Amino acid sequence: MRFRLLNLMRQGLKKGQSIVELTLILLMLLTLLTAVVEFGNLLNQYIIVVDAARAGARFGSNDDPFIRTTDPFTLDANFFTNIDIIVEGAEAGRNPAPPAHDLDKGALTPIRLNPADGDDVVISFFSIHDGVLTRFPDFVNGWSYYGHHGYTGQTSNFTTAQLEAQIPASIAPDTGMVLVEIYYNYHQILGFWRLIGVPDPIEVYTYAIMPLSAAEPTPEP
Fold first, then answer.
1. Is residue 2 packed enough to be buried (19+ CB in 10 Å), middle (13-18) or exposed (0-12)?
2. Is residue 89 part of a domain?
3. Number of independent structural domains in the chain
4. Residue-wise pLDDT tens digits, 57-88
5. What are the CB-based long-range contacts (under 8 Å, 24+) for 86-94?
6. Cα separations (Å) of 16 from 28, 30, 134?
7. Which of 24, 168, 195, 218 matches a 20 to 30 Å C-alpha distance to 118?
8. Residue 162 to residue 135: CA distance in whole angstroms
9. What count of other Cβ atoms lies within 10 Å of the Cβ of residue 193?
10. Is residue 221 part of a domain?
11. Which domain holds residue 183?
C-alpha cells in the first residue's frame, strides 16, 4: 500500500510539473504572438508614414513655392496645402473616422492623423546661399495644417541653426530644399504591451528632405 501511495504521489508531481511547464510555454508563445501582431502592425504603419513623407517631399520638389507675378516674389500658401493634400488627402478625408466610401485618399491612407493626439504634418522649405539658410515660412518653425485649423499643431524638429550647421559654407552650392515631417501617435491594437510599461500611444516621427530648384537663390543683376 505504501509503495502504491508513493507511486501515485510521484505521478501527481509529474503531472503537476507538466502543467506548470505547459503554462509557462503557453505564456511565452502568447507573448511572442502578441509581439508579432502588435509590433508587426506598428512596423507596417511606420513604413506607410515614411513613404508618405517621401511622397510629399517628392511632390513639393517639383512645385513652385512663390507667386512670380509679383515683384518681389511672394510666398504661395498653396505650396504647403498642396503637399499636405498629397500626404493626408483632401480636406473632406481628414475625419479620423471617415465614411465607408471615402475617396479623398492621400499617401497616408489608411492611416488617419488625429490632431487631438498631436498628429501633424509640418512643412518647411529653404533657400541656401553661401551656407546661410533662409527658412520659409519665416514667421514660424515650419507650416502646420492643424496649426492653422484650431489646434496647437507641431513645429519642426529641426531648427534653422541645426540645418545650417550641417552645410559646409565653403563648398555648398546655392540651392533650395523642401522638408516634410510627420508626427503620428500609434495606438496599440491589443493593449497587452501597455500592461508591461510600453507607452500607448507610441510616438512615430519621420521626415524627408528633397531638393527644391524653385527655391534656389537667383543671381543679382
1. exposed
2. yes
3. 1
4. 999 999 989 887 777 778 888 899 899 989 98
5. 86/55, 86/56, 86/59, 87/52, 87/53, 87/55, 87/56, 87/121, 87/180, 87/182, 88/113, 88/121, 88/145
6. 19, 21, 72
7. 195
8. 12
9. 18
10. no
11. 2-215
What 3-state class would DSSP assign to 135? strand
Q: Give which of 165, 179, 174, 168 is closest to 210, Cα–Cα.
A: 179
How many CB atoms sit inside 10 A of residue 70's CB? 8
Mean local confidence (pLDDT), 29-33: 76
User: Rounded to an integer, what distance in angstroms lies between the CA atom of residue 69 and that of residue 21?
Assistant: 77
Domain-embedded: residue 201: yes
Q: Pick the closest to residue 158 from 144, 174, 141, 172 (CA basis).
A: 141
Task: Report the mean per-residue pLDDT for the chain.
Answer: 80
pLDDT surpassing 50 at residue 214: yes
220, part of any domain: no
Residue type for position 154: Q
The residues, ordered by sequence, that sit 6+ positions from 113 with a Cβ below 8 Å of its Cβ are 88, 94, 96, 119, 120, 121, 146, 184
- By CB atoms closer than 10 A (0-12, 13-18, 19+), residue 12 is exposed
Cell numbers representing residue 193 in the block = 504591451
The owner of cell 504603419 is 45
